[in-house]
Amino acid sequence: MSAPSGSLWSPMSRSLFSDIKAHRIGDILTITISEEADASGEAETETERTHDWTGKLSASDFSAAGRNLLGGTTSFNYGAEFGRGLKGSGKTTRTNSVKAYMTATVIDVLPNGNLVIRGSRWIKVNDEMHQIILEGVVRPVDITRNNTILSQKIADAKIFVVGKGPISRQQRPGWLGQIIDLLFPL
């Protein structure tokens, strides 16, 4: 390390004319998370298959050693009907929404100049801890002059919201329920 020269400028300083946008490892970027996902699906199935088999078999004068064994003409009627059917329907609807502001750190700069970011934020609400985890790749041109970016502009975005606390515990089945679900899935 060199001795201080008394100058206001240091070799680690950026240019006086550069902006404040994140562009190197360790820089911080503010993200506006605004994600909404709506999904719905509906299916209905009905199948039916039927097979009918009928026939008649006749036999007369079965004899052995000159003796009629069946006592004349005998006829056998046979018939069978087989059927199989399935009728089912299902419907699913799911809506998710996440809105938050958080910061992430640049952890890598790719050869093309894109930035790999990762960030985490803890929020406590009514004894319930929520952690938001965000990872992804950002193009420098998508970063605004205020050093912010929308979550929709993050490539390969992974956004996780994990809750820990009494509400999260109550929404999961107990260990006995989990075992029963494993043994007898729907």
Give an overview of the whole structure:
With 186 residues, the chain is mainly beta. Helices cover 8% and strands 58% of the residues. The chain is built from two helices and eight strands. The strands form two sheets. A six-stranded mixed sheet has the order 7-1-4-5-6-8. A two-stranded antiparallel sheet has the order 2-3. A hairpin with a 2-residue loop joins strand 5 and strand 6 (128-138). The chain starts with 27 loop residues before the first strand and ends with a helix. The mean pLDDT is 76.
Based on secondary structure, the structural category is: mainly beta
Low-confidence stretches: none
Strand order of the largest sheet: 7-1-4-5-6-8
Count of discrete alpha- or pi-helical segments spanning 4 or more residues: 2
Brief write-up:
The protein is built from two helices and eight strands. It has helices at residues 166-170, 175-183; strands at 28-59, 63-64, 67-68, 74-109, 115-125, 128-138, 148-150, 155-164. The strands form two sheets. The chain has a six-stranded mixed sheet.
SSE blueprint and pairings:
Layout: E1 28-59, E2 63-64, E3 67-68, E4 74-109, E5 115-125, E6 128-138, E7 148-150, E8 155-164, H1 166-170, H2 175-183
Parallel strand pairs: 1-7
Antiparallel strand pairs: 1-4, 2-3, 4-5, 5-6, 6-8
